[in-house]
Amino acid sequence: MTATAPTARTEARPLGLAVVGAGYWGPNLVRNFQAAEEFRLRWVCDLDLARAQRVLGEYSTVSATDDYAAVLADPGVAAIAVATPAATHLEVALAALRAGKHVLVEKPLAATGEEGRLLVAEAERRNLVLMCDHTYCYTPAVGRIRELVGSGEIGDIQYVDSVRINLGLVQKDVDVLWDLAPHDLSILDVVLPEEDRPIAVAAQAADPLGVGHACVAYLTLRLASGAIAHVHVNWLSPTKVRTTMVGGSKRTVVWDDLNPQQRIALFDRGVDLSSPDQLDAGERRELMVNYRSGDMVAPALGEKEALRAMVEEFAAAIRQGRAPLTDGRSGLRVLEILEAAAQSLERQGALVPLPSVQRVGVAW
Ligand SMILES: NC(=O)c1ccc[n+]([C@@H]2O[C@H](COP(=O)([O-])OP(=O)(O)OC[C@H]3O[C@@H](n4cnc5c(N)ncnc54)[C@H](O)[C@@H]3O)[C@@H](O)[C@H]2O)c1
Q1: 54, 120, 141, 330: which one has the fewest Cβ atoms less than 10 Å from its Cβ?
Q2: Which CATH code is given to the segment(s) 137-304+337-358?
């Protein structure tokens, strides 16, 4: 896209928007887009018209409809937010892009990598913003971890460990990996430096209930630097755990999303190898390790709602003609890991290389 500098007038004008899908998650988008001054919500569209009307209430000036074609034909709509089931994302989002609208799609970007690639290609061909709502990436905690990694404060990444387990709703159509791991994988995608992204994945899983797909799963991701990242997702755990640990050569950051007093803890504790360059091979085998036992600090975090920050990023990307933090390619990388993990499961946990999706910070 040749980004034309927006005039003061266009900058001040809110972007017309429609939310498609008013089921469980759609109302959260409706609430946040209505609260955002960058957007003017014009439509809520659902195949079930009564549902769309219920979300808006009796006195709303926003139009409820079950006619998606009418929404797409509205020249006042610059952007569409898609909150329909994943199996419909390709159809709904592709139609929006072809109508020249910027698109926000709920996670996962699409039902398969192939579908995700079609969406990314269409958006790039048309110079439109395609964004995936990986909501966790917009939490203050993930923002802080990104800063800590990006600034070099934690040093070289040595390992990542992410746990998302609880007594979860056993889904009929997707396994635990497709249900829960997109959160961890999208967080990894925005936290890890570009040159340290996953290059291969191995998966192990079990279906102890006999529901026909995995209820407990472990992913091991090989990062480009040689470090590893581990993701554990489980619907059967009696305790709820939501922790992500990023171990670095200088510091280790631990995020516990269930501990509001101390969501993030930064540890100056770890293991150093003493003067490794001055050791010969025999001495190195002796493993001359030093244990570092420094402070732990719990940085203060804001309490901004992640969806609000996500909506702001969508508006900024449209205004500035740039890719958003969780762009279509980011959504596609998550899909490709999930597909490679499924292949790994079929091959008894073999390490499966990931397709290389080149990241383009600004695709136009
Ligand atoms: N970001 C998050 O944390 C988060 C949380 C929950 C769900 N989600 C995602 O949100 C999406 C929707 O999930 P949900 O739980 O709200 O589903 P849902 O089944 O509760 O609601 C989907 C709605 O879409 C409507 N719909 C289906 N096809 C349509 C079409 N072609 N045109 C218009 N309306 C259509 C249905 O009538 C229904 O009202 C999924 O992609 C899901 O993964 C994201």
Answers
A1: 54
A2: 3.30.360.10
Element (H, E) at 115: helix 113-125
Backbone angles phi, psi at 144, to 5 degrees: -70, -40
Name residues of the chain where pLDDT drops below 50: 1-10, 357-364
Question: What amino acid is encoded at 249 in this protein?
Answer: S
pLDDT in tens, 203-239: 999 999 999 999 999 999 999 999 999 999 999 999 9
- 151-167 pLDDT, tens digit each: 999 999 999 999 999 99
* Ligand 1 centre distance from Cα of residue 108 (Å): 11
Q: Which residues contact 83 (CB under 8 A, 6 or more apart)?
A: 19, 20, 21, 22, 23, 25, 26, 29, 106
Indicate whether residue 51 lines ligand 1 (CB < 6 A): yes
Domain borders along the chain are 8-128, 137-304+337-358
CB-CB contact of 103 with 83 (8 Å):
no
What CATH superfamily classification does 8-128 receive? Answer: NAD(P)-binding Rossmann-like Domain (3.40.50.720)
Place of tokens 């008013």: 22
Give residues with Cβ within 8 angstroms of 328, minimum separation 6.
Answer: 109, 116, 119, 120, 123, 124, 130, 131, 132
81 pocket-lining for ligand 1 (C-beta < 6 Å): no
Regarding the beta carbon of 92 and ligand 1, being less than 6 Å apart is answered: yes
